[in-house]
Amino acid sequence: MRIDLLGSGAALPDPTRNHTSIIVTVAGHHYMIDAGHGATLQMMRQNIDPVAVNNIFLTHLHYDHIADLGFFMISTWMCSRQVAPTVYGPGGTAEAFGHLLEGGVYDADIRARAQYPLRKKNRHVLKPEVRLIEPGVIFEDERVRVTAATVDHIPPEICDCFALRFEADGKSFVYSSDTRPVAAVEELARGADLLVHDCTFPRTALEFRDKVGVGTSAHTSPFDLGALAQRAGVKALVPYHFGHFDATNPVLRKHLAGHMPIEHVGPDLLEEVIEDIRKSYDGPVHLARDGLRFDL
Ligand SMILES: [Zn+2]
Ligand SMILES: [Zn+2]
Asked: What is the pLDDT of residues 71-114, one digit of tens each?
């Protein structure tokens, strides 16, 4: 099983980190988790053919996890995709696609391109089959099994949010999605070969956000993540979904100023992340970055 991180940032426009998206590859078959901005282009950079991605798992419908869907769907249609992808997602996923493609945002584009016989022929690929994620086993083929667990990130009456465990060839990979530290992820991640987990803000940023009253509770601190990973006995850990606290870009720093102690924002905070995880977790820690690849 191979894991490719296509994006490692949180929701703001960050020139060094795409939004969330991960490709799991088993025996040459690709499975995509989330489709934040930059996902399709990053696949190209990593020599992963987006046309060959036929199963998509959306953990929740925050825009930093789905912003690339329109680009992915239409650009792979143009690259002569022949199979409509199957999309697994929370309630609201079918409606989101309904508003996006034919009859939605890209309706004129699709009708214009479908004038060409070649595009007309594979227009069916723009109608993905959408299946609802519920806790438990959500997908199984001859290569991989995927299990979902509910996490705690946004109010469920707005959107459910799921962590996912992929198992193949005796190896396991768990992705927490965005979440507070929850027992369900600890259970799902028990003994996993690799855990990629929300670690949106380091301690220094959390303390600042608490003081100024910006939301902090929907994510996991490095300290809590280290403790969770140690209890779960995961073999390697990737703190993930970085909230731009290492930014050096002046425009991004300007916009971060109300959210974070800007004098501390910069690559040094990555050291603080490691330090706080190390207070409990003694396995290998790999800081997330776009393009990071793991072979399990
Ligand atoms: Zn997010
Ligand atoms: Zn989110």
From this structure: 999 999 999 999 999 999 999 999 999 999 999 999 999 999 99
Task: Give residue-wise pLDDT tens across range 232-262.
Answer: 999 999 999 999 999 999 999 999 998 899 9
CATH code for the domain in which residue 244 is found: 3.60.15.10
Q: Which ligand is nearest to the CA of 61?
A: 2
Q: What's the confidence (pLDDT) of residue 156?
A: 94
Question: How many residues in total does the chain contain?
Answer: 296
Cα(111) to ligand 1 centroid in Å equals: 32
Q: Token pair of 245, please?
A: 């606290």
Question: Which residue has tokens 């191979």?
Answer: 2
Cα of 275 to ligand 1 centre, how many Å? 23
Q: Tell me the residue ranges of DSSP E strands in the chain.
A: 2-7, 21-26, 29-33, 53-57, 86-89, 129-132, 136-140, 145-150, 162-168, 171-175, 194-198, 237-240, 293-295
- Residues, CB-to-ion distance under 5 Å, ligand 2: 62, 178
Provide the domain limits for residue 145. 2-295
What total of structural domains would you count in the chain?
1
